[in-house]
Amino acid sequence: MFTLGIIIASDKSFKGDRIDKSGKLIKEFMEKNNYKVKRYTIVPDEQSLLEEELIYMCDDLNLDLILTSGGTGFSRRDVTPEATLNIIDRYAPGIAEGIRYNSLKITSRAMLSRAISGIRKDTLIINLPGSPKAVKESLEFILPSLGHGLEILKGLTSECARK
Questions:
Q1: CA angle, 42 as apex, 79 and 128 as ends, to 5°?
Q2: Residue 148, domain extent
Q3: How do residues 120-130 score in pLDDT, each as one tens digit?
Q4: Which of 110, 128, 150, 163 has the fewest CB within 10 Å, making it most exposed?
Q5: What is the reported pTM?
């Protein structure tokens, strides 16, 4: 069972002005698929706070996976990709590209996503969109490959060839 951290980047949810639906959806979806949620937090759209939380989850909690939601658009306050870029050691561009590719089949607005994915030490970080509908679609798309990627990252398997 892989461990999971969830970070919601939202000024409104942080202040209590909006109910966080995306984070709850992530939590329920991932727990149903045998991921253990170790931390779930809502932070304002502040790059330094996002970076601190990402580093804490990677370095102190040693989580296997972090899923962020929100802060990936064009607004000046959308800084989740920049925070992620600042703290990762290696890119994992195929995940974000795959999510965008799949989302473009549903809406042309998917091209406006600036989400990224990457690795810090032994933790995979994936930026997800902010809307619950897009979060669900993204999770359904990446889930079949996610476990295998984490197994490789953790050294539990070394084979990537399809059977």
A1: 55
A2: 2-153
A3: 999 999 999 99
A4: 163
A5: 0.95
63: left (phi over 0), alpha (psi -120 to 50) or beta: beta
Is there a domain that residue 123 lies in? yes
Q: What's the number of domains the chain is made of?
A: 1
The one-letter amino acid at 64: D
Instruction: Give Cβ neighbours of residue 74 (< 8 Å, ≥ 6 apart).
Output: 112, 114
Neighbours of 17 (CB within 10 A): 9
Task: Output the 3-class SS for the chain.
Answer: CEEEEEEEECHHHHHCCCCCCHHHHHHHHHHHCCEEEEEEEEECCCHHHHHHHHHHHHHHCCCCEEEEECCCCCCCCCCHHHHHHHHCCEECHHHHHHHHHHHHCCCHHHHHCCCCEEEECCEEEEEECCCHHHHHHHHHHHHHHHHHHHHHHCCCCCCCCCC
Distance CA 106, CA 60 (A): 38
The CATH number covering residue 63 comes to 3.40.980.10
Alpha carbons within 13 angstroms on the beta-carbon side of residue 8 total: 24
26-65 per-position pLDDT tens digit: 999 999 999 999 999 999 999 999 999 999 999 999 999 9
Beta bridge partners of 9: 43
Q: Is residue 163 part of a domain?
A: no
